[in-house]
Amino acid sequence: MSEEITPELFARLVELAALELTPEEAEYLRRELNRQLDAIHQLEATPIPEGTPITSHGVPYPRERRAPLRDDRWQPYPNRDALLAQAPETDPEGYVVVPDIPHETLE
Amino acid sequence: MDYEPVIGLEVHAELQTRSKMFCACPVVDLTTAEPNTAVCEVCAAMPGTLPVINERAVDYALRVALALECQIRPVSVFARKNYFYPDLPKGYQISQYELPLAQHGRLWIRTSQGERAVRVRRVHLEEDTGKLTHVQKDGQAYSLVDLNRAGVPLLEIVSEPDMHSVEEVRAYATGLRQLLRYLGVNSGDMEKGVIRFEANVSVRPKGSDRLGTRVEIKNLNSFRALEESVAYEIQRQIAVLEAGGQVEQQTLGWDEARRRTVPQRSKEEAHDYRYFPEPDLPPLQVDEDWLARVRAELPELPHARYRRMRAQYGLSDYEADLLTAEKAVADYFEAVAARAQAQGVPVKTVVNWVTGELFALLNRHGRAADDIPVPAEHLADLLALLHKGALNKQAAQKVLAAMFTQGGTPEALMDALGLRQVSDAGQIQAWVDEVLAAHPAEVQKYLAGKESVLNWLFGQVMRRARGRANPQVVRQALKDALERRRAEP
Amino acid sequence: MTELWQLSALDIARLVRRGEVSAREVTQAVLDHIARVDGAPGRLLEPGQDPAAVHAAEPGVHAFITLTADRALAQADAVDAALARGEDPGPLAGVPFTVKDIFTVEGTPSTAGSRILANFVAPYTATAVARLEQAGAVMLGKVNLDEFTFGSSNESSAFQPSPRNPWDLNRVPGGSSGGSAAAVAAYEGALSVGTDTAGSIRQPAAFCGVVGLKPTYGRVSRYGLIAFASSMDTPGPLTRTAADAALALQIMAGADPHDATAVTLPVPDYLAELEKGVRGLRIGLSPDYFRITRVDPATGEWHTEEVRPEIRAAVEAVAQALADLGAEIVPDVPMPHTRDAIPAYFVISRVEAASNLHRYDGVKYGYRTPDPVADLREMYRKTRGQGFGLQPKLRILMGMYVSAAQYSERYYERALRVRTLIRRDFEAIFDPQGPYRLDALLAPPTPTPAFPVGAVYGDSVLMQYADQLTVAANHAGVPAIAIPAGFDGQGLPLAAQFFAPEFREDILLRLAHAFEQATADAAWRARRPGIVG
Question: pTM to 2 decimals?
Fold first, then answer.
C-alpha cells in the first residue's frame, strides 16, 4: 500500500473538511484513502486519446430535451416557519444564530 | 525612481430581477426586509433541493456583456466554489469558472488624459451570499445569519489590470455603474450594497512591463473607499519598495475609520475552492436568436450617446458628461430639446436651463436625477415662451420653480403667479408703434404681401414688452396698426 | 388463496379501481404483514449497544426507519373517498409503497440513514414520491439505506439494526437501496422508490431477487433526492414484476420545473410497450462483463476474477430464453473501459459527494453538537465529526483530496475523460450504423450473490468493487435493469441485468417482461423468502 496520504496531508484534509475525528477513525480513514488511491491509480494505465473531452453531466443536453429556464416570477414561500423551525438555534427576530466567527475586528 | 501603479477591478453587481437566481424567492430590499423572510427550501440549501436558472438573470447578464462588447460563449458552464461559511447555505457558491458567460470585452472611460478602453477579462453569473451580523452581548460573541440575500443573482465583471491611476479607477467604476443603470439591471444604490468592488493593486518601475506583486483589497462598498484604498495602497507599496523591501502578496481590507488598508484573515486557511462543474445545472446555452433579441433591446449606450449628443447638440465635453451621466437625464434633455427646438428655441438655451436651473432645483430638493417632477413638454413650452419673449428670464425661473414644486403648465402658472403680461391697450399700442417705426423695411415687406413678417414683428413687440405683453392684444394691435398704414398712402 | 399483501401493484390498482377491494383493506393487510416480518425498525443506538443483539431480540427484515401507518391509512381513505365520489383515484390507486429514506417527504423524518439528519423533517416532498402519491399510491414509510447511500450492504446506516436479506437473514440485502429491495422481496409494499448512483438499485434488487430499474439520468426528477453524486444519482422503482416497474416509471418519469437536469422528452406508454415482445431485438453479451478486472496494488499487474459460475449460467439461461423468443444474441461485444468504471467512480463521486455534504454544518437544520464550542469552526468540526459516520467521512476526505487544485488534473479531470471513454463504449455498441447495432446488452449485475453480514463491511475497496458491473451505466447515463434469474445452490437469488441506449427504458421493460412470461411456470418462480411464510 502506498503512503500518498501522509499523516500531515491527512491532517490538512481533515481540517479542510471540518471534521473532528477520533484516533481510531483517523487511522481507518487514512488507511482506506490510501487503499482507494491504489485503485484510482489504475486509471493511469488507461490510454486517453488526445482531445478526449470531459463528461461532467449525466447525459448530454441537446435543445430538444433540455428543460426551459425559469421565468422570473417570485412567489412567497408558504412554509417559512417550518423551514426556520429546523434550525438548531434562532432568535426571536428570525435570525439563525451561530457561534462566534473568527474574524478580524476593524477597530 | 518613478513608479507606475497597475490596477485591476472586480466588480460584483446584483442583478435586480424579481426572483432570485435559482429559486422563486423575491429579491428584496435588504435594508428594510425582516430577516429570513425571502427564504425557501432551495436558497436555504435544504437537502434534496436543486437550482433552476432564472432566465431574466441571464438576459440581464447578456445585456451587460454585449454592452461591454464581450464575446459571448454559446455554451457556458456553472461551477461550484466550495467553502464553509454560515452565509453560504450550501457550503458552495454556484458561480462560473473555466467557461464563463462572456469574455474579452472593454469599457470606454474618459479621464483628463482623454478617452481610452479598459479591457474586460470576463463577465460571469453567480449567486450572492447571505448576510452576517456579529454580535457582542452579555460577554457572549455570536453571529446572526440572514439568508434574504442568499441566492440573489450577481454579476461578476473582471477587468484586466489595465488601470494606472486612481482617476482611471474612478472613471472605470463610475462608468460601469452608469452602464448598469442605463441597462436597467442595477439601481446603482451603493449604500444598499448592490455594487461592490475588489481591487488588485501592484506597482512597478515606470517603463517596466513586468507586473509587481499584487495585493487584493476586498469588500469596498463605496466609490470613496475604492479610491482612497487604492490611493493608499499605491503609496504604501511605493514606500515599501523605496525602502528596499518587498511587497507581500496578501488580501487586505479597508479600515474606513483609520483610512488605511489592513490585512484580512481569509475565510479559509487555504484558498482552494475546489471548483468543479455544477452537476445540477446543464451547460447554459445561448443561441444566436437569444443574443439577437437582447441586442435589439439594448438602449443607446452611455459612451455612444455621449459622442452623439456632443455632436448633435454642439455640447462641450463637460455638458455632454452632465447630460449623459444618467439615462433618465439624457432622455429628458432630448425630449425637451426636441419640443423646444420645434418652437424655435436654440438648443443652447435648453442645455443651460437643464444643467443650470433644473439641476439646481433637483439639488435643492434632494431629488435624484431620474426623478424630475416637471414633464419635459412643460419645460420645453416654458423655454418657448421665454424665447418668444412672452416671459422674461426671472419670470421663467419663478414659473419653473412652481412647476417643480406644485406642477402645472407654464401658462397656467404664469397666471397664478401674476406673471401674466401687460394687456393695457395704450401701453401695447406704444410698443407696437415703436416697433413699426424701428423696422420700416419689414413693414414694407408685409404691406407688399409677405404676411409671415407679421410673426417676426410680433416677436419684436413681445421682446420690447419683455414678455409681459398679452400676445392676443399685441397681435390685434399690430394687425390694426399695419392695416392702418396700408390704408394710408 | 392469494393474500392482499401478495398482490402486484398492477393487480391492486385494478381491484381498487374496480371497487373490488378498498385501499384501506389493502393498506391494512400490508401493515399487518409488516408487523409480522419487519422486526425492530432501524434507530439510532445508544453508545455500546450492539446492532446484532437488537436484531436477535427482535429478528426480522428491519427494512424500515420510519413507518407512517396513520398517514398511509389516511391516504388510503382518501383514495376510497375519491372512488366513492365517482372520481378517478389515479392509476396507482391504493398501491402501498415504501420510500428509501434518501427522499424527502413532507412532514416525515428524512434521515438519509445519518445521525446528522436524524431530526430533519422536510417541509417539501420529492417529486418522484409526490407523483406516486398523486397517482393514488399509499406511502407506508421510509426504508433504510447505507448512510447517505454510501455503501453496498446497508451496514453503514446510522439506524440499526440495518436491513437483512429476506432470503437469508444472516446476509445483507445489498445497497444502498437495501431497505427498498428487502421490503419489496418481503412483500412489505408492492414497490419501493430507490436511487442508483453506482448500482444502488440493481445490486440490492439482484441480492433480494426483485426487479430493480435504474432509468436514464434525467428521466426521473431528482428534486427531493438528498444528493450523493449529483451527475449520477438516479431515482427508480424496485418491484416484484416488470409490469409494476413499467407502471411505476410511467408515473415517476417526466420533466420537472424544479430539476433542470430532468429532460423534457415525452414519456412513452411503458405498459403498452411491454406487449411488443422481443423478436428481432439484438442482445449483446460482453466478456468484459463476466469478470472483475483490476490492478493488483502489490504487483501493479492486471488481475482478473471471473464471476461465479452459477451467475454466468443464470445469465446465459436468460440469453437462451430470449433467443427462443426470437431475439438475436450477439456474443463477444467489447466493453473495454468497464474495468475503469470503479476507479473513475472513486474520484468523480467523491468530489460531488464532498461538495454535497458541505451543507451539513449544524447551522440551518439537522444535528448540531451539544458540546460547548469556542467558535464557529469548532462547532463545524464537532457537528460533522459526531454527525457523520465513517463512510461519509471517507468520501468527504477523498473528494477534498482529488479535487484540490494541485491534484485535480491528475485525478478529477482524468476521471472525467475516462468517463467519456466509458460512455463511448456504450455509444459504440448501440450505434445503429455500427458493427454491433445492439438494442440491449445482457450482463450479470453482481459478481456474487448476497454476502453475509460483516463479511465485507469495513473494506471500502472491496465493497466498492461490488458495483463494477453496474456503475458504468451511471457514468454513461444509460438505463439498466436487474431482474430475478433463479437461485443458487444455497437458495440465494441470482439475477441478470440489461443495459439499453439512453431513454430506451421501454426496451429494458420488454426484455424483462418477456423473460418473466417465458419462465412463469418455472419452479423457482414459486419460491418465497422463508420469513414471508
Answer: 0.91
